[in-house]
Amino acid sequence: MSTKTKPGKVIFNNDAAQKLMAFAALIALFIIFSLASPNFFKFDNIVSIVLATCVNGVLALGITIVLLTGGIDLSIGTSLTFSAVIAGVCIVNLHLPVFVGILIGVGTGALCGCINGIIISKMKLPAFIATLGMQMVLKGLSLVISGTKPIYFNDVKVFREIAMGSILGKIIPGFEIPNSVLIFAAVSIIAGLIITKTIVGRYGCAIGSNEEATRLSGVNVDAWKIAIYSICGVFSGLAGILMASRLNSAQPALGAGYETEAIAAAVIGGTSMSGGEGTIMGTIIGAFIISVLTNGLRILSVPQEWQTVVTGVIVIAAVYMDILRRRKK
Questions:
Q1: Could you give the CA distance from residue 196 to residue 279 in angstroms, rounded to a whole number?
Q2: What's the CA gap between 316 and 310, in Å, rounded?
Q3: What is d(CA 176, CA 51) in angstroms, rounded to the nearest whole number?
Q4: Most CB contacts within 10 A, which of 184, 237, 300, 324?
Q5: What contacts 33, CB < 8 A, 6 or more positions away?
Q6: Residue 137: domain span
Q7: Which residues lie below 8 Å from residue 52, measured CB to CB, with a gap of 6+?
Q8: What is the pLDDT of residue 170?
Q9: Residue 43 belongs to a domain
């Protein structure tokens, strides 16, 4: 959480109560689903939850930075897909080196975020409309470029190792932690440093707290918005690479709906939709809550449509709690 003192200067404080409530909810979900089904707490299922959280968590970290400014990005889900498809085209179709393909994929996400930032800051379109339009554009482009067919990495064995391999397992025999978990941990640390230790985080929170006051204090708000949306795009691109590596394919029809879960994770973790407040640790807890909830409902054979209903209700409840918390302040 952040408390604004004057434009451009933000003091960060941990909202311990909010994070404690989210963590308690996470533990409660684990207990409930474990009692409801013996299959939930099996090792393979826990690994599946963690792997799912890595992708959604990286997206949630990116959207947290945007939400701090009081903005929103509804295109992160399809940006994930588009980045994966572009990486697939570069690596599989054009036979470029894997590292180059990954850089191009992540760069594609950054470019999408940059375009969002330009449309929002320079053309003065509401973030909701601008990113909704970008969502539709990227969804269509993913299908067009891939020919509506998945791009498989079967002949590129090293690509699957990005998410599903284990560097630690090779160093310490028997210590098999998937690389995607390590990547998520590293990205979480980077996101935390961006928010708490860099000018990007300080100006982002200042913009979210009072954009006009920040502008009048001499800050180039438009430029920083473009930078922040570009950073969010980098996170989306990285999430796309992780997803493609995990599935060993770039699925052009995948990605829609991921933005909802990412936003839900950030809001559940205490990030305010009004801007100016949020923590990376809270977002991580929120991402695990979404993954555990989705996995648990699937284990209990709850239909997909009802899983979506539950997620929507949770988002509404989390936003309402945020409104009540801000009213009390």
A1: 9
A2: 10
A3: 13
A4: 237
A5: 40, 41, 292, 295, 296, 299, 300
A6: 2-30+49-328
A7: 291, 294, 295
A8: 67
A9: no
Contact (Cβ atoms closer than 8 angstroms) between residue 152 and residue 261: no
Task: State pLDDT tens for residues 138-182.
Answer: 999 999 999 999 999 988 889 989 988 888 766 666 667 889 999
Residues 120, 225: contact at Cβ < 8 Å? yes
d(CA 240, CA 128): 22
Q: Do the Cβ atoms of 83 and 240 come closer than 8 Å?
A: yes
pLDDT 10s digits, 105-128: 999 999 999 999 999 999 999 999
Which residue in this structure is represented by tokens 């493609």? Answer: 244
- CA dist list (Å): 249 to 93, 140, 253: 13, 18, 12
> Which of 49, 78, 46, 73 minimizes the C-alpha distance to 61?
73
Per cent of the chain over pLDDT 70 is: 92
Distances (CA, A) of 11 to 1, 61, 136: 9, 20, 38
Q: Name residues of the chain where pLDDT drops below 50.
A: 1-14
Q: What is the CATH number of the domain that holds 133?
A: 1.10.3470
- Alpha carbon 26 to its chain's center: 18
SS3 of residue 10 by DSSP: strand
Q: For residue 39, is it within any domain?
A: no
Q: Is residue 19 part of a domain?
A: yes
Structure tokens at 20: 């404690």
Task: Give how many domains the chain has, as a whole number.
Answer: 1
